[in-house]
Every structure is written in C-alpha cells, then in structure tokens.
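The authors assume throughout that readers already know how a fold can be written as discrete tokens. Each protein is reduced to its one-letter sequence and a matching series of backbone shape codes. I therefore recommend that a typical entry be quoted early in the introduction. For illustration, here is how one protein appears when written out as sequence plus structure tokens:
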Amino acid sequence: MKRKMTQFSLNLIPEKHVWRVSELNLRIRDLLDEEFPDLWVEGEVSNFRAAQSGHLYFTLKDEKSQIRCVCFRDQVRGLKFRPEDGLHVTVRGSVSVYEPRGEYQIYVSHIEPVGLGALQLAFEQLKKKLAAEGLFDAERKKALPALPRRIGIVSSSQGAAIRDILRVLRRRFPNLHVVLYPVKVQGEGAAEEIVRAIRHFNRATLVDVMIVARGGGSFEDLWAFNEEIVVRAIAASEIPVITGIGHETDTTIADFAADVRAPTPSAAAEIVVRTRAEFEKHIADCSRRLVQRMRYLFLERRHRLRDLASHRAFRRPEDLVRRSRQRLDDMNAALATGLRGRLDVARQRMKMASARMGLFDLRGRVGMLRIRVERRSGELSAALERAVTRKRRRYASVQVRIASLDLRARVSQLRRRLERDASEFAAHARRYLVATRRKFEAATVRLEERSPFQLLERGYAIAYDANGRVLRSAEQVVEGDEIAVRVARGEIGATVRTKRNVGDQGDVREEKEQ
C-alpha cells in the first residue's frame, strides 16, 4: 500500500522546463503587446537624444519611477514640436520589450505637451530657433520701392484678402500692374505652394515688391505661415516682402521674417503704394526745397566772389610776385650756405683722418721689415754654407775612411746620399727664400697703399708745430708761431697770421703765410 502511495505522489510533480533568455524575452514581449497595445502615459522628458537616423530616444519619469521611450523617424515627421528635457508631456504608444537588452519601453506614436498646445509650443520653439540664426534682424530688412511698377501677390484667388488688396490698389493708383500667384492658404500642402510662389517671383524677377496675404482665421488656420520652409523662403527672397496675414491681433512667424509687416491685407496694399496726391505733394515739396537750395547757393557764391574781388591780392598782384621772388632768393642763399658748411665739415674730417694716419711711420716699418728680411736671408745663406761645409767635411772624412778600408761601393753610396741631401736642402732653402721675398713684397705693397703719404700726392698736406707735433686744432698755435707744412715732395716753412675756430660745426680754418 505504501509503495502505491509513493508512486502516485511522484506522478503529481510537474516536469522541469528550462527557458532560454531569448525565449523568455519573446514571451514577455507577447504578453505586453497583448496587454498594452495602445495607451497614454504622462510624465517629464529627460535624457533626450536625437540619433543620426532620425529616431528620438528619451526617458519619461515622474517623482517615483521612470520608463524608456523611443519615437521612430516615421512618427517624428508628424510631430508639430520637438521634445526637450524638462518638458511635461503626454505620449501615446504601445509597451513592448527590446529583446537584445531585455528592457521594456514605450514605442511612441504621438506626443502632446501638458498645459500648452502643441502648435503654440512649436510656434515658440521655431521662433526662438530662427531668431538665433538672425533671420529676424533689422539689418537684413530690405527697403520698399517708392513707386513700384509691378506688385506680386501670393494669396488665395477666392478669399476676401485679394479683393481688399485690389480695391485699395485700384483706388490709390488705377494703372498699377498687379500679378497674382494663387495658392492654398491653409490645410495640407499650403506651405509648399506658398514657397513655390515666392521662389517663382524671385526666379523670374517679374515684380518690384511682393505681398503675402490671407484673411483672418484661427491659430490652426494660419499655421501654414508658421511653417519653417515658408519663413526661410521669405527671408531668402531678394524681392522685398510685405506680409498681411489675418487680423491686426494675429501674429505669425512669417511676419517677423518679412521686410514689412502689415496688420491686415488692406493695410499691406496701403503700405506698398502711396496715393497720387501724396506723390504730387512730395514732388512739390522737393521742388520747393530745390529752389530754396539753389537760391542759397547762388547767394553764397555771389558773396564769395565779392570777397575775392575786394581782396588785396587782386589789387596789387605784383607785390605778391616780388615777395615770392625774395623768399626764393633767401631759400637759395640758405641752401648755398648749408652746402658750403657740409663741404667744410667733410674737408675738416679728411684733414683729421690724414693727421691720424700721419702718426703711423709706415716707411720706417717698411725699412725695418726690409732689414729683418735681409738679415734673415744672410743667416740662411750662412747656415747653408755651414751645412755644405759640414757635409763636405764629413764626405772628406768618409773618403779617408773608405780609402783606408778600400770600400769603394760604400763610398759611392754615401756620395750619392750626400749629394741628394745637399740638393734637397738647397731646394728647400730656395723655396723658403722665394716665399719670404713674396711676403715681403706683398707687405711692402700693402704698406705703401695704406701710407698716409700717398694722400700727399693728391694735394693734401700735414702741418707741424715748432716741436714737430702734428697740428690738429687751431688752439695748438698762436699768431706769429712758426710752423712746417709737409707736402708730397718737401716741406714748407710758414708763419701763422690768423686763425679761426668754428666750434659748432667742428670746422677749423687757418690762413698761413709762407
């Protein structure tokens, strides 16, 4: 009986089933897909990241928990605004599991901001973005033409806006040329048609100014003029653009990018062209100001002519010519004086240089070098003679020993060696003498070239006082002193009659009497 009970209890234990990780994640995904196929979740956006593929990844959290979210590129295209960190939103989607990581997340298909409409939030985000790019700066606004010949209108051909614009233009300037490009002003595809119209006018250059207009409507009806492509097309237009969209209280992003914003389409027509009466009044004002300006200029020129005619230069012009000639003579005299002063300074510097060179007795040095060379030549000759004598004596003693020893072969060898040594010594002595003579001649030429006495050959002279000192300044002598003047060939005795010092220019002039 016990054996039967044990066998029965073992049959009640379920079989063991081991799940693989991928199988478990797949099962959980199926359960979540069945349980949460479509739901709305509210929370705060954090860790927002836009991938290069166009997908959006972020975390939705509240004060206690958080969940991952992903919005694929196809759903991102339908969003009116762009999520950002800290934004409180409500998302719609389905809950599923990302199997590779085993994480469950919300696959978002739609996002709405909490407390602020999606369109209003998209409006503020786009406005802030384009303002940061400088599309609304006043520096890029273009001026409107004073009298346009052709006006382009981008609007619906059936709306009240085009009728109001044409009525105002016909009343102000009946013969004005108007070109209408009909477009949709709301709904799907309206933004693309508006952009094509603006680019068409710019490409063909058909008009001088352009009006982009539509009648009033709700914020959603005017949304085509808040699209980024429309705003950028208006900002890039080379033709000035006037926007007249909705009523006076309505504002679109296109109004910020336009060159001029009109509160209504009728106001845009009034801005684009003035009335004929205004033009006539403007022309009359310009004519009056022109006449007044011409009268003032004529009066000013007449007074100036009278002043010039009464000027003393026209009464006695020959006095002005004489004064100019006198100033010219003074300038010539000053120029001649300056040139003479410079020439005297140069001469004085030459004299001082000649005097300094006279201190070096180069001829004495040349004589000393000649004596040293001659003495060295004598010493070399004596040394050569002594060496030859010694060699001869050695040769003679060798011959004696050879004669005594009867070594003829040895004597012959020693004779040849002696003759070779003697010839080598003689050649060496001749080369040394030749090199020494060349150095001496080169030194003699350099000394003669640098000798201050060469300057005497060109007409310069050196003055000495009674003690034989070179005179460099007039202060070294007094009137009546005897001096000697050395010239190229000889000396001249002279007596100092006068002397003069020019301290500022360093110019000393002496008059000497032979």
In short: The chain has a mean pLDDT of 78. The longest strand covers residues 490-502.
